[in-house]
Specification:
heterotrimer, A mainly alpha (about 290), B alpha/beta (about 625), C mainly alpha (about 350), A: about 290 residues, mainly alpha, MetI-like fold, 9 helices, B: about 625 residues, alpha/beta, 6-stranded mixed beta sheet, 22 strands, about 35% helix, globular
Chain lengths: ~290, ~625, ~350
């Protein structure tokens, strides 16, 4: 039997590029992971000269010096110690919220990825839910629960869950109605295997990317809450509350108390976004539904 | 006027970011006034790159190098600035594209677009211009220009949209018209109308036409000269009459032999290896004539009886299939032909139970399947398979070809051993004409034809008795098409499968099928032996389809058009074809039933044609663009 | 066959969902109470309050009744247009809240306008010059601003423009301490100052607006630039743009066509952003001591003033729903694709 000899055209799709380009694409991803991992590890393990909550480690409101790298705050605490330790409260909290939001988003999104009446109603409900001032609802929940950190995580999933559900739903719907899932159904594949072989692998890129995006939002929520005095509250060191305290001195020129936690916060959110973009670029091949 | 209108010398186009050879290398072309030149090639041949560089549309980082792109009366286009080139476009070089809706903005109304177009070319004269546009549109066969001018893209049919595009291309009376696959995206029945408008022989105007197409029949019927491109290089050029009758280059010969319907005439001209299509048509004709009773003796593999299917979406309901019955015998190929929206794909999906019918019976090998639960159906699925139109979309991008093909085997009960699976996957690859080594590739690493072969391998790996082929070749290049059709036929002879071959094109259908079933707006209007239906249609709609088939032999004049192509809505209870039919009477206000077979042929029409009949009133001919161009005020 | 204007059908269908959404918003805002632990009354009464005082508060607020009864009472009050009385100030919630709305509007409307101007402008530039320096610059700037929390951005601007450069005044709210509010007409200080002809007051109002407006507008611009780049970028590679180029349309017109094509999507995003601002400018108001409805809501929160919180949640919910209805009507009117049912 004749074997067809057709010219094979290897299309340049997604990550199918030369070695150097491949590497530069991952620079952001790697840098982001290094910053985040580094801050988290330092927050946990870095031995510090002063305790983060130790009062009067030096003169109050002292600028950066060899003694106090990031200066001291209005009660004489070491800003460096607090900035570093805050990573071990803020980041894990944000990640817990992200995990919760991801579970809500993926499970919820897959559950409503049909065109049934019930799914339509759920989506209408989400519309109404998203019409609420979510930040206020979040603050209310955390205040009411007496600053419970679990509630902060739940609040994060309330803020980012609905969007996540929408995203997963639309992609999953498109997949369910795609030609290759139909072809597989026509070959007699059951719904469990369809999920494992066709749906999940093609949702992977979306989930990874969206999880990294959600982490950035989650950290933002954690910081905003503690800036407003809810969630992680003093004496626990957290970036948001440190910036709040520092903001009082800012207008009189003592910038360091707000600036260093601010920089740490910025770096983390930026890194999460870098990770998200890096993942998107790396996993580009699974853009299943885009025609070639 | 001895000088050429257009002269392209040493044109090369290179695409940055792609490793291979440049898209076009050292291309030369001379085009005289009044000449209609066909630029023919398959995908990747560089035909689009050539017209883009003539129009000055290729931008950095991609590169165009040409010694000269000279347009008489304008100058050397290769040395012009982008701003100068912009003014040349439409004024001196008209352009008609492939996607008719591409010419239309989805939100801006047609009238406003004409206004924008004319003012960008400094020719906007307010209401006067608009009434001139209206006149041109009505000359192009648009009955109600005012409505069209006030409309948006979504409110126009493809044929109307393409007429608007033609109006845009001809409004400024350019001396050169470039048409890039102008009919590829249109329904076959509209194709000839559009070609009649833009590509009639030039009698009055001096406009030259550069017609880019993959369709050799279009070139045969509508062009004077032809240039054949392969992989960015010209392999053959000359007058259509001589190139088509005595092709020199092997690639041209291969192309010509791949044209469906080309068989009887070209047999002598084509070399032995390429005459696949010819062989198969002859084979089928002999077989049908010999048996004289297709699909009767044994139990049919697939039976569809009185099937209905209505889709409801956003409040409206569309009857996709109504009261259709069909049976397919063992080893038989039935072609289901119709234009888009005829319900042919829905019927194919019902036959494989990807869609459940609202009413009616579907039986596979004598066993009812329309009422089975999804679970019970899964056990039968390996016996009936489907190959889709879009080869890439029907493969999971995350799965290697081998795993895509082995998947159906995993659903077989009792379970197969690993070595059995490997053997059968390998067999399926070979049967589909694919090197088994390609099994380790991902879909995007395969060519379109290879992707479709993977789809075929996946369909036959379970040795089904019935396969639906839903336009399996329509997204592929001509030569690949022919090879795939050939492969499908060999497979059928080998495995004795039955095919339901869905197509919009009668010529392709005739090439592969024993019987042809014609669908229109959800109903079967005619069925019968393949070669009879094409050559001696009974139903007026079938006649329209058959007239739409252009002959790839330039010596054979196109069949005169008997049926006009009008756009009509469905009148409830009436013959679905009523709005388009010239032969209708009061009787047609009730729907005709598919009559009992006469010589294996059935038709649903109160006034069927017969082979000798000639329509009393041939449709009124519209003026061609050629004539319109001179009646136009060139200073518009 | 009945021929109806598809526009009306679409709008009617959207409007039909409103009561349901409204009910959902009401129920969710009510449920916030249900989640409050028993210590609420204690918290309101104060730490040293007697048991009798706590019970009295519980009775007064109806917190001792079954949840459904409470919901019934709540709905009954709402139907009569009564948002309740503040636990804290004993004033009616509705009028108290509405008196703070103009200050917030004065902040978010100019911020939205500025954000749209910058965001859509730069996003279109990025889309048109895709991959070029301008595009990369806009994207880089956007991702930096997007990674900066609002309060941090506000503080940064404050530090630079007020403390370092002295270009702008201290964050003392809508007016400097030397000024008094102009006579009340609309509650919008800019308008009131103009009506009263107090030009120096107007100037002070305007300079006080700059920092908070920038703080809201820049992140909005960053988000909108990213979205616009994607949406307009897609519109710019549409067939009709390539076609327009092939028939010699000017680039300016092609960009305009791409923007018209993207109009509906951009409008949707802007409406979403506006709806988010109504309850979401809390942080900026707090940074700049802005006496708007967000600050008001925060103080209600810290006082556990349940009717006020409910009132605010309900208010923002309704504003958001209204914005969405307006958006739907506008989209159906402006976009033939939606009318013809081609778009999802």
């Amino acid at each position: 039997m004749a074997i067809a000899a057709e010219p094979t055209i290897i299309r340049p799709v997604g990550a199918q590029t030369t070695g150097t380009r491949e590497w530069t694409k991952s620079v952001g991803l790697i840098a982001g992971l290094v910053v985040l991992g580094g801050l988290l590890l330092m927050g946990w393990f870095l031995p510090l000269r002063y305790g983060p909550n130790a009062l009067g480690t030096g003169k109050v409101l002292q600028g950066p010096s060899a003694q106090h790298w990031f200066g001291t705050n209005q009660v004489g605490q070491d800003v460096f110690a607090r900035t570093i330790r805050a990573a071990s409260t803020d980041l894990p909290l944000a990640l817990e919220g992200t995990a919760l939001a991801t579970i809500v988003g993926v499970v919820g999104g897959l559950a409503v990825s049909t065109r049934s009446r019930a799914s339509e109603w759920v989506m209408r409900g989400l519309d109404a839910f998203q019409a609420l001032p979510l930040l206020i609802v979040t603050i209310a929940l955390v205040v009411i629960s007496n600053n419970s950190l679990t509630m902060v995580a739940i609040a994060i999933s309330l803020v980012s869950g609905p969007f996540y559900i929408r995203l997963v739903r639309s992609q999953a719907l498109a997949l369910r109605e795609s030609r290759f899932v139909e072809a597989s159904r026509a070959a007699g594949t059951g719904s469990f295997r369809l999920m494992i072989r066709h749906m999940i692998p093609n949702l992977r890129a979306l989930i990874f990317t969206q999880t990294a995006n959600t982490a950035a939002v989650a950290l933002l929520v954690v910081a905003a809450l503690s800036f407003l005095g809810v969630g992680t509250v003093p004496p626990t060191a957290s970036w948001g509350s440190m910036i709040k305290d520092g903001s009082e001195q800012l207008v009189t020129g003592q910038w360091w108390d707000a600036a260093f936690p601010g920089i740490a916060l910025f770096l983390c959110i930026f890194s999460f976004n870098l990770v998200a973009d890096g993942l998107r670029a790396r996993l580009a091949r699974s853009r299943a539904l885009e025609p070639e | 006027m001895t000088e050429h209108l257009l002269e392209v010398a040493n044109l090369s186009v290179g695409y940055s970011g792609q490793v291979g050879a440049p898209a076009v290398e050292d291309f030369n072309l001379c085009l005289d006034r009044r000449v209609r030149l066909g630029l023919v090639g398959e995908s990747g041949s560089g035909k689009s790159s050539i017209i883009k560089s003539i129009l000055g549309l290729i931008r950095p980082p991609h590169t165009v190098n040409a010694k000269r792109i000279y347009l008489d009366g304008v100058g050397d286009l290769a040395t012009m600035t982008p701003a100068q080139m912009r003014a040349v476009r439409a004024r001196d070089i008209g352009y008609i594209g492939q996607n008719p809706f591409g010419a239309l903005h989805p939100v801006v109304s047609v009238a406003r677009q004409f206004e924008g177009f004319l003012s960008d070319h400094g020719s906007w004269k307010g209401r006067n211009s608009l009434s001139e546009v209206g006149t041109l549109l009505s000359n192009l066969g648009i009955g109600d220009p005012t409505r069209v001018l006030g409309a948006h893209a979504g409110e126009l049919s493809g044929g109307m949209a393409q007429r608007v595009a033609i109006a845009l291309a001809s409004l400024l009376s350019p001396s050169l018209l470039i048409a890039d696959e102008p009919t590829t995206a249109l329904d076959v029945t509209v194709q000839r109308q559009v070609l009649d408008l833009i590509a009639q022989p030039r009698k009055v105007s001096e406009q030259a036409l550069l017609l880019v197409t993959h369709d050799l029949s279009v070139v045969a019927q509508y062009c004077d000269e032809v240039v054949v491109l392969q992989l960015g290089q010209v392999v053959e050029r000359g007058p259509v009459a001589s190139v088509f009758t005595e092709p020199q280059h092997p690639y041209t010969k291969k192309l010509l032999s791949s044209v469906p319907g080309a068989a009887p005439v070209l047999e002598a001209g084509a070399d032995q290896g390429g005459g696949v299509a010819a062989r198969s048509v002859r084979f089928r004709r002999e077989r049908i004539l010999a048996s004289d009773a297709p699909a009767s003796s044994t139990t049919p593999v697939m039976v569809i009886e009185h099937v209905d299917k209505t889709f409801r979406r956003a409040g409206t309901s569309v009857a996709a299939v109504c009261d259709v019955s069909l049976s397919i015998g063992r080893g038989e190929t039935v072609a289901l032909v119709g234009e888009s929206g005829s319900g042919k794909s829905t019927l194919g999906r019902i036959a494989t139970m990807l869609e459940r019918p609202d009413a009616g019976r579907v039986a596979l090998e004598g066993r009812d399947i329309h009422n089975l639960s999804s679970r019970n159906l899964r056990g039968l699925r390996p016996k009936m398979q489907i190959v889709f139109q879009e080869p890439y979309q029907s493969l999971n991008p995350q799965l290697k070809a081998r795993n895509a093909v082995s998947e159906p085997l995993g659903n077989l009960r009792p379970k197969l051993s690993k070595t059995d699976i490997d053997d059968r996957v390998r067999d399926a690859f070979v049967m589909a004409g694919l090197n088994p080594d390609k099994g380790t590739r991902y879909p995007h690493q395969l060519s379109g034809g290879e992707q479709q072969r993977v789809g075929i391998a996946r369909a036959v790996v379970t040795r089904p008795s019935f396969v639906v082929l839903d336009e399996p070749t329509s997204s592929l290049d001509l030569t690949v098409r022919a090879a795939i059709v050939d492969q499908l036929q060999k497979l059928q002879e080998e495995l004795g499968m039955s095919y339901l071959f869905i197509s919009h094109d009668l010529a392709t259908a005739q090439q592969i099928a024993d019987r042809i079933v014609v669908m229109y707006k959800g109903s079967i209007v005619e069925s019968g032996p393949a070669w009879k239906v094409l050559t001696e249609p009974l139903h007026p709609y079938t006649q329209t389809l058959s007239e739409a088939c252009l002959d790839p032999d330039p010596r054979v004049a196109p069949r005169p058009r008997q049926q006009p192509v009008l756009v009509g809505d469905l009148v409830p209870g009436a013959c679905p074809y009523l709005q388009r039919c010239l032969r209708s009477s009061d009787q047609c206000k009730s729907a005709p039933k598919l009559a009992d077979p006469v010589e294996h042929r059935r038709v649903a029409c109160f006034h069927p044609l017969d082979a000798t009949s000639v329509s009393a009133a041939p449709p009124q001919a519209l003026p061609s663009l050629d004539e319109l161009l001179v009646t136009q005020d060139p200073t518009v | 066959m009945k021929i109806r204007d598809p526009r009306l059908v679409l709008i009617a269908r959207r409007l039909a969902v409103i009561p349901l959404s409204l009910l959902l918003v009401v129920i969710i805002s009510f449920l916030l109470v249900a989640l409050i632990p028993q210590s609420t009354a204690q918290a309101i009464a104060g730490q040293g309050a007697s048991k009798e005082a706590v019970i009295a508060i519980n009775r007064k607020l109806g917190l001792n009744q079954p949840l459904l009864t409470q919901l019934g009472n709540y709905l009954d009050r709402l139907v009569h247009g009564n948002l309740g009385t503040s636990y804290y100030s004993d004033k009616p919630v509705a009028s108290d809240m509405l008196s703070h709305v103009p200050a917030t509007l004065e902040l978010i409307l100019p911020a939205l306008a500025l954000g749209m101007l910058i965001g859509i402008g730069l996003g279109t530039l990025g889309a048109y010059r895709s991959g070029k320096l301008a595009d990369r610059g806009v994207r880089m700037g956007g991702s930096i601003i997007q990674a900066t929390p609002e309060f941090l951005l506000g503080l940064l601007l404050l530090y630079v423009l007020f403390f370092r450069l002295h270009w702008l005044p201290a964050p003392t709210g809508q007016l400097g301490i030397a000024y008094v509010n102009p006579p009340y007409h609309t509650g919008l200080l800019v308008v009131d100052a103009i009506i009263a002809g107090q030009w120096s007051t107007l100037g002070d109002v305007l300079v006080h607006l700059v920092l908070p407006v920038l703080t809201i507008a820049l992140p909005l611009a960053a988000v909108l630039a990213r979205i616009t780049r994607a949406v307009v970028g897609k519109a710019l590679v549409a067939d009709h743009i390539a076609y327009g180029r092939a028939i010699g349309l000017k680039e300016r017109r092609l960009i305009r066509y791409a923007l018209i094509d993207s109009r509906t999507s951009l409008m949707t995003f802007c409406a979403t952003l506006f709806a988010g601002l109504v309850g979401g400018d809390v942080i900026v108001e707090s940074v700049f001591n802005w006496n708007g409805v967000g600050q008001w809501a925060i103080s209600a929160m810290t006082n556990l003033d349940v009717p006020a919180i409910q009132g605010f949640v309900l208010f923002s919910g309704i504003v958001t729903l209204c914005v969405y209805i307006a958006l739907d009507v506008a989209a159906v009117t402006l976009d033939p694709r939606i009318r013809l049912g081609h778009s999802s």
